[in-house]
Amino acid sequence: SLVRAASRCGEGGLSGVRPVFPHNSYSTEEDKKVPKIYTKTGDKGFSSTFTGERRPKEDHIFEALGNTDELSSAIGLAREFCLDKGHTFTDQLDKIQCILQDVGSNIATPRSSARESHMKRTNFTAQPITDLETWIDSFTKELPPLTNFILPSGGKSSATLHLARTVCRRAERSVAPIVRSGEADPNVAKFLNRLSDYLFTLARYASMKEGNEEKIYKRSE
Ligand SMILES: Nc1ncnc2c1ncn2[C@@H]1O[C@H](COP(=O)(O)OP(=O)(O)OP(=O)(O)O)[C@@H](O)[C@H]1O
């Protein structure tokens, strides 16, 4: 498996961490040196943690890794819509996608089978949580206060940010038992909890900046 291959951001854990090989490097000579994306080791429904344990693919670790991967993909989609509208906060989304690789690395390294060297390479700090809080506070200052339930809406940037928020909450739910059992860093759970608040706030901010209306909940008569 390519899980051990370090990428621009992160040590491993998410399938998105696979290094990308440009097609034009697939000459016959180089073909021998370039590792294949399919090792076939997962074909029987088992895969490896970063610590080398073999576990069934439905293990809660792979469930959480898959959800984190989906979250990064959802953010990637939202980011594209935000770029189209010229929003400048997309650099924050870039950083968050990198941090999600680190989240994956930490989840993929269950402490019970981790050696000191694994722990060092996959530790997760509190700094990204503080960054999210700073960003949330600065957007909140510009937003009108919430007086109603708002519904996922407000244009494509905003609606896809809401979608990313809901995937984030699923990732959080799947990480909770792993953190509770002491297998992953508590800061990972905190980060995901703060990230859904960030995505909510950012969805409202994007909608406001684009001059779109947020749908509000109205009780049907
Ligand atoms: N279905 C999955 N959902 C979430 N995480 C997975 C899944 N399959 C594998 N992983 C994790 O992602 C890493 C990279 O995925 P990869 O597809 O290389 O694993 P594999 O299926 O074991 O190998 P291969 O695809 O080469 O047969 C794995 O080492 C494992 O930690």
In short:
This protein is an all-alpha fold and 221 residues long.
Structure report:
Helix content is 54%, strand content 3%. With 221 residues, it is an all-alpha fold. It has one domain (2-210): Hypothetical Protein Ta1238, Chain: A (Up-down Bundle). The protein starts with 27 loop residues before the first helix and ends in a 12-residue tail after the last helix. Residues 1-9 and 16-26 have low confidence and may be disordered. Bound molecules: adenosine-5'-triphosphate. The site of adenosine-5'-triphosphate (ATP) has 17 residues, from strand 1 and helix 2.
Features:
single chain, binds adenosine-5'-triphosphate, two-stranded antiparallel ribbon, ATP-binding, Corrinoid adenosyltransferase MMAB, 221 residues, Hypothetical Protein Ta1238, Chain: A, CblAdoTrfase-like_sf, disordered N terminus, PduO-typ, CblAdoTrfase-like, mainly alpha, 7 helices, 54% helix, globular
Low-pLDDT runs of 5+ residues are 1-9, 16-26
Radius of gyration: 19 Å
CATH superfamily: Cobalamin adenosyltransferase-like
How is the CATH topology named? Answer: Hypothetical Protein Ta1238, Chain: A
Spatially, the strands of the biggest sheet line up as 1-2
How does the helix and strand content classify structurally?
mainly alpha
Q: In sequence order, what are the helices and strands, one letter per element?
A: HEEHHHHHH
Question: Span between N and C termini?
Answer: 57 Å
Beta-strand residue fraction: under 5%
CATH class: Mainly Alpha
For the biggest sheet, the summary is: 2 strands, antiparallel
**Can you tell me the overall shape?**
globular
**How many individual helices?**
7
